[in-house]
Amino acid sequence: AEKKNQVDFYNRRFVAGELDNPSFAGIAKAMGAEGIVVDRLEDVGPALKKAIDLQMNHGKTTIVEIMCTRELGDPFRRDALSKPVRLLDKYKDYV
């Protein structure tokens, strides 16, 4: 979402490094947790159930890495990078 914000609000210019698809499930396993990779929508529910079972019954923290689409989602707040509207006079100078 952060890259999408930068693309939308800064004319396709963005600041970040391009990581070559790190496996967050792999990172979790390297740090002693469980990691589950899901690449089909129908597998999301069972993966979440397994993660909950591992946490609740075995005390094992689990990362569920969901890779079902490569499409960037819309930002949660459309106004996230727009200038604030100051409603109180004492804050009008802080724009």
From TrEMBL:
Pfam families: TPP_enzyme_C
Keyword Transferase: yes
GO biological process, one term: small molecule metabolic process
Domain Thiamine pyrophosphate enzyme TPP-binding: 3-66
Keyword Transferase set for record: yes
GO molecular function, a single term: thiamine pyrophosphate binding
Coiled coil: none
Keyword terms, alphabetized: Transferase
Protein name: Sulfoacetaldehyde acetyltransferase
Organism: Paraburkholderia diazotrophica
